[in-house]
Write a structure and sequence with these properties.
13% of the residues lie in helices and 40% in strands. The protein is mainly beta. The strands form seven sheets. It has a four-stranded parallel sheet with strand order 1-2-3-4, with helices on one face. A four-stranded antiparallel sheet has the order 5-28-27-26. Strands 6-7-8-9 form a four-stranded antiparallel sheet, with no helix packed on it. Helix 2 packs parallel to helix 3.
Length: 511
C-alpha cells in the first residue's frame, strides 16, 4: 500500500502541475467492495468501477458514502460474450441504475478477439442504449482495435477490415490505388494465373491469360496515374491500362506493353520513379555472392546488405519536383537474421546519379515486408508493413511486473502483421540515434510502430487523400487456421483464408 500511496501522490501532483486532462479509475482489488471496505477512504477523489457480478448489488443504485458506494461510478462489464450480454440486459431493465445519470459510458472490460467486439456491440445495439454510449477498455494495439471494429460500410470509411467474399486461393497479394480504384493483384494458388480484384467491385475477379501471367513472387506498382506495372522474379514486366466499364463496375486491365528489366540478377521487386518527366525503373535485386540485396537504377548498382540472405523484399519511389530529387525506399527480409531491414536512397534528377545513401533507417524482427512512400507536406511519408511481427500489446504483456512493456526483447510471432510509419526526417532521426533504438511503440521520435492484424504476405500502398491528408490501404491473406493470438484473434469465420483489405487512422505528426 505504501508504494500505491506514493504513486497516487505523485500522479495527483503531476496532473495538477501539468494541467493535463487525465483521470485514473480504480479497479479490482482497489475498489471498496465487500471485504475491501478499507478502501473506502483511500485515493480520494478517484472513482472506481462497479462490476455487477463482483461488487455489492446495492452500490449500483446508491451513493451511500458510509458504505463506500459513492466511489462506484463506472459501470463495467466483463467481456464474456453472451454472459456480458445478459448483464447488459439486466442493467437495461433497471435503466442502468444510478449510472444512467453519470458522466461515464458503459465500459466493457478488456476484450481482445474480433468476434467478441462484434458480439458485444450487436448485443448492446439491440436494446436501450446507455446515455453516455459504449466504450471498450482494451489491452491490444489501438490500430488492431480500429481494424477489428471496422464496419465496412463503404470504401470512404477511415477503417477497413474487408474480406473479399469469393476469393479464397489468393497468395502474395499486392495492393495499389490507381485511377481511383483499389486494385489487388495476386497469384491464384490453384491455377497459377495472375489475377486481380477491386474493393469497388469485390464480387468479381479477373485473371490474365496463361501466356500473359507472370511467375511469382510478383511486384506491383503504379506506372502512372492510370496504368499499372506488374513484374516478376525474372525481371519480366507488363504495363496495363486500368479502366472501369462504368462507375462501380469491374476494372479491366488492358495489356499496354511488355518488356524485361534487363537485369542479369534475380529481381526481388520493382518500382518506377519520375522527376521532371524523366522516368526510371528501380530494381531491388539479388546481388549474388558479392551482395545479398542491391538497388539498381539508371545503370548504377548500390549494395544494401552484403551478408543478407534475401528471398522477399519491396521497393517504392516518390518524387520531389521542387528539390529535383527521387527518393527510393527498399525493405528486405533477411533470412539469416530473421529481421526486416529498410534503406533509403536519393537520386539527383539533373544527373540521374545517386546523391545520398543507401541509409539504413529501420531494423525490426519479422518477414515479408512491403513499403510505400508518398511526398507530403514538403517531406516523404514512409510506411512499412511486414509479417511475423512482435506482439507488443496484450493483456499478458501489459500487466507483467518483471519487465516494462518496451523493454521486452522482441521475437517473431507467427502470423502477426506489424506496421511502422513516419516521415523521412523522423526515420533518419531514429536511424542516427546512438545506439539506433529498436522499433517499439514507445520510441518518441515520430515513428509509429505496432501490430494491426493477423495473416500472411502483407502489401501496403500509401497516398494523399482529396482532403490533403495521408492515408493508406493494406492487403493480405487471412489466417488459414483459427488459432489463439495474444494480440487479439481475428474473426476466422469472416477472414479465414480470404483476401483481406485493412485500413486504420494514420496519426503521424510532424516533429
Amino acid at each position: 500500500m505504501a508504494v500505491l500511496r506514493q504513486f497516487f501522490a505523485a500522479a495527483t501532483q503531476t496532473i495538477f502541475q501539468a494541467g493535463v486532462n487525465v483521470e485514473f479509475i480504480l479497479d479490482g482489488a482497489l475498489t471498496p467492495g465487500y471485504v475491501r471496505g478499507c478502501m473506502r477512504s483511500e485515493f480520494q477523489p478517484w472513482v472506481s468501477t462497479w462490476v455487477p457480478s463482483r461488487d455489492p448489488w446495492e452500490a449500483g443504485f446508491s451513493d451511500d458514502p458510509a458504505l463506500g458506494y459513492d466511489r462506484f461510478q463506472v459501470l463495467d462489464m466483463q467481456a464474456e460474450g453472451l454472459a456480458a450480454g445478459l448483464w447488459v440486459d439486466i442493467m437495461r431493465h433497471f435503466t442502468y441504475g444510478k449510472f444512467s445519470a453519470d458522466k461515464y459510458p458503459l465500459l466493457v472490460w478488456e476484450p481482445s478477439d474480433q468476434a467478441d467486439f462484434a458480439l458485444l456491440s450487436s448485443l448492446y445495439l439491440a436494446g436501450r442504449p446507455h446515455p453516455r454510449g459504449l466504450m471498450f477498455s482494451i489491452n491490444i494495439d489501438p490500430a488492431r482495435f480500429e481494424v477489428f471494429t471496422a464496419t465496412d460500410r463503404d470504401s470512404s470509411d477511415t477503417a477497413w477490415n474487408f474480406a473479399f467474399p469469393s476469393i479464397v486461393n489468393a497468395t502474395q497479394p499486392h495492393v495499389v490505388v490507381v485511377d481511383g480504384h483499389t486494385v489487388v493483384v495476386y497469384t491464384d494458388a490453384q491455377t497459377g494465373l495472375t489475377c486481380w480484384a477491386t474493393r469497388e467491385a469485390p464480387h468479381r475477379a479477373e485473371c490474365l491469360t496463361e501466356e500473359l501471367s507472370l511467375l511469382p513472387p510478383l511486384s506491383v506498382t503504379a506506372w502512372d496515374p492510370a496504368r499499372l506495372l506488374i513484374s516478376d522474379y525474372a525481371g519480366r514486366y507488363c504495363v496495363f491500362d486500368v479502366a472501369a466499364a462504368h462507375s462501380g463496375g469491374p476494372v479491366r486491365l488492358a495489356h499496354a506493353a511488355y518488356g524485361t528489366a534487363g537485369s542479369s540478377s534475380a529481381v526481388i521487386a520493382t518500382a518506377r520513379g519520375c522527376v521532371f518527366g524523366a522516368c526510371a525503373l528501380v530494381l531491388l535485386v539479388d546481388g549474388g555472392a558479392s551482395c545479398g540485396a542491391a538497388l539498381r537504377v539508371n545503370g548504377q548498382m548500390a549494395c544494401l546488405c552484403e551478408s543478407c540472405v534475401v528471398k522477399r523484399g519491396s521497393v517504392a519511389a516518390a518524387m520531389d519536383d521542387a528539390r529535383g530529387l527521387l527518393l527510393v525506399v527498399a525493405a528486405v527480409a533477411d533470412q539469416a537474421r530473421g529481421r526486416v531491414l529498410a534503406w533509403t536512397l536519393r537520386l539527383d534528377a539533373s544527373t540521374g546519379m545517386v546523391s545520398e545513401g543507401p541509409n539504413l533507417i529501420a531494423s525490426t524482427v519479422g518477414d515479408t515486408p512491403s513499403v510505400s512512400i508518398v511526398h507530403h507536406d514538403r517531406d516523404f511519408f514512409i510506411m512499412i508493413v511486414h509479417g511475423d511481427a512482435f506482439c507488443w500489446n496484450s493483456e499478458e504483456q501489459n500487466k507483467q511486473a518483471t519487465v516494462a512493456l518496451c523493454d521486452q526483447v522482441p521475437v517473431r510471432n507467427a502470423g502477426v502483421l506489424g506496421y511502422s510509419y513516419g516521415y523521412l526526417t523522423d526515420w533518419l532521426r531514429h536511424a542516427t540515434a546512438i545506439p539506433a533504438p529498436e522499433l517499439t511503440p514507445c520510441v518518441a521520435n515520430g515513428i509509429v510502430h505496432g501490430s494491426y492484424d493477423s495473416g500472411t504476405d502483407p502489401s501496403v500502398h500509401a497516398f494523399v487523400t482529396d482532403a490533403g491528408t495521408v492515408s493508406f490501404v493494406e492487403a493480405h491473406t487471412g489466417p488459414t487456421a483459427d488459432v489463439p493470438c495474444k494480440c487479439g484473434r481475428p474473426d476466422f469465420a469472416k477472414v479465414g483464408g480470404r483476401l483481406v483489405l485493412d485500413r486504420f487512422t494514420v496519426v503521424a505528426e510532424r516533429k
